[in-house]
Every structure is written in structure tokens, then in C-alpha cells.
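TICKET: design request
STATUS: open
ATTACHED STRUCTURE:
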């Protein structure tokens, strides 16, 4: 156990628990994501994985109310971020950061998760294990254009835990959801690596194999899994969901104000140039 990592995780999980408790009292449903979810479910021990922030999912309609709750708890918008809130730490301690999500790029309608994709967890609502697996497999490629070893390890631990709980039916459930969400090309790099590691049995792989036009998409995701490039970081989400191109070019006014300090027509005209500059600069 790394004591510094454990201390950071304790700080973040404590802040998240405080925010979720206040949200619950206000009638707001929240779900932990990524590292916070994995730690809450016991898939990692404190000091074993590492976190820079705590990620939380809620309905879009609850966003403003939840942000008001965070402000009352001493949080403030994090500079340069459209979604993160931070609370200064005591002394030399780093700030506690909570990153808010009102949607997940790997599915079209996040409300579906609140309707039938959640179950009771140790600290509140949690994604069921098939959905947690798909989120953990898709997120690094769709949001960051890469597949770090830690993400593969996350998926491996989720799968092993799910097999203990659900048995081989876990793979059937995950494959069915992957097909429904159109995620087979996105998660194929993870499935291939878990197959090589002996986590996914060969008998289960057939349900995840990409077919027809999916093979073209999968080739781009496999390329990103091998080596990150900024161009792929921006391309992969659009390959998965073309509607995201419009969201890239014309984000919500709230995003523009948080990221650039303005949502004027001029700011929107500059947005494509800023995106191009970001791609060329990195």
C-alpha cells in the first residue's frame, strides 16, 4: 500500500461521501464512477490504485441543485474545467476535487441507467457490474484516446468479481449490452487484451467480435490502444456517436462560460479554431 496514495483516496472518498449524503437528503440520486466506484465496491484496497478526483454521475435535471449543494459544502468551480468542483485542503493538503457527469459518452440515454442499470452499493447507488465493466472499458478510449494498463486492470478486476457473483452469465449480459449500445468496436481492444490474459474465455469472445462496418471502427480503436494520438482522441468519440461532433463544435453555453469565460457569438466562432489548435499543439 502506498500511504500517500491512500491518504489522497481517503480525502476524495470522504468528500464524495459528504456530497452524496447531502444530495440524498435533497432527493438527488448519485452514482460513483471510475476509481471511486472501484474502491467503494472493494475491487481495490486503499493505496492500491490512485485517484486525482472523485467522479459522480447524476441526472441532468439535478445538476444546478447539486452544484448549489457543493457550494454550500465549501466547493467552488475548478478553473479551466467545465465540470469539476474543488474544495481547498487544509495546510499543504491538495484540494478535494469532484468531477460531475450528467451523461456518459458510451450510451445515448443516461436515464436508462437510472431506470434499470443501478443497484444498491456500499455507499449508495452503483452501476451493475456489466455496465461498470463497459464504462471502464469505453471511458479511456472515448475520453482520452488511449488504453492505459490501469484501465485494463480495472476491467479485469470487475470481470473477476462479476464472475464470482454472476458466473459465466456475466459475459452474456455484458455482450448483450455492448451490442445494444453499439460498443463492440469501442471495447474490442479491452476484450482482446483480457482474452490474451486468460480473463475472457474463448467461448465468450464470439459475442463481442466486431462484424461488418464495425471492423473499420474497431481498427481505429485498436490503433489508439496501441499508441495515443491527439487526432484519435478527438476522432474516436465521433466515430462512436457522430452527434458528438456537433457537441464538440457547439457546446452548451454553460461549458463555454466555464471553459473560456464567455458564451458570446465570438466565442463560438473561435471554438473550432481552439479545437484545431489543441490538436496541432499536443
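STATUS: resolved
RESOLUTION: sequence designed for all positions
ATTACHED SEQUENCE:
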Amino acid at each position: 500500500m502506498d500511504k500517500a496514495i491512500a491518504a489522497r483516496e481517503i480525502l476524495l472518498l470522504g468528500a464524495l461521501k459528504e456530497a452524496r449524503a447531502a444530495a440524498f437528503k435533497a432527493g438527488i440520486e448519485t452514482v460513483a464512477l471510475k476509481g471511486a466506484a472501484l474502491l467503494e465496491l472493494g475491487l481495490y484496497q486503499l493505496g492500491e490504485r490512485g485517484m486525482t478526483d472523485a467522479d459522480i454521475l447524476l441526472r441532468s435535471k439535478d445538476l444546478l441543485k447539486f452544484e448549489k449543494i457543493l457550494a454550500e459544502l465549501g466547493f467552488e468551480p475548478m478553473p479551466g474545467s467545465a465540470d469539476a468542483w474543488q474544495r481547498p485542503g487544509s495546510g499543504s493538503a491538495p484540494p478535494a476535487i469532484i468531477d460531475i457527469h450528467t451523461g456518459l459518452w458510451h450510451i445515448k440515454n443516461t436515464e436508462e441507467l437510472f431506470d434499470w442499470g443501478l443497484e444498491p452499493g456500499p455507499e449508495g447507488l452503483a452501476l451493475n457490474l456489466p455496465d461498470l465493466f463497459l464504462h471502464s472499458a469505453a471511458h479511456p478510449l472515448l475520453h482520452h484516446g488511449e488504453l492505459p494498463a490501469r484501465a485494463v486492470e480495472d476491467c479485469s478486476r470487475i470481470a473477476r468479481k462479476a464472475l464470482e457473483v454472476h458466473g459465466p452469465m456475466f459475459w452474456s449480459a455484458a455482450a448483450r449490452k455492448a451490442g445494444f449500445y453499439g460498443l463492440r468496436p469501442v471495447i474490442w481492444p479491452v476484450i482482446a487484451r483480457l482474452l490474451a490474459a486468460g480473463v475472457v474465455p474463448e467461448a465468450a469472445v464470439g459475442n463481442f467480435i466486431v462484424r461488418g462496418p464495425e471492423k473499420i471502427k474497431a481498427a481505429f480503436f485498436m490503433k489508439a490502444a496501441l499508441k495515443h494520438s491527439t487526432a484519435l482522441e478527438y476522432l474516436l468519440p465521433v466515430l462512436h456517436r457522430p452527434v458528438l461532433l456537433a457537441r464538440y463544435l457547439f457546446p452548451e453555453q454553460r461549458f463555454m462560460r466555464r471553459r473560456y469565460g464567455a458564451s458570446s457569438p465570438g466565442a463560438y466562432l473561435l471554438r473550432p479554431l481552439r479545437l484545431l489548435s489543441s490538436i496541432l499543439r499536443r
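CLOSING REMARK: The chain has a mean pLDDT of 91. The chain has three domains: 1-127, 128-241, 250-281.
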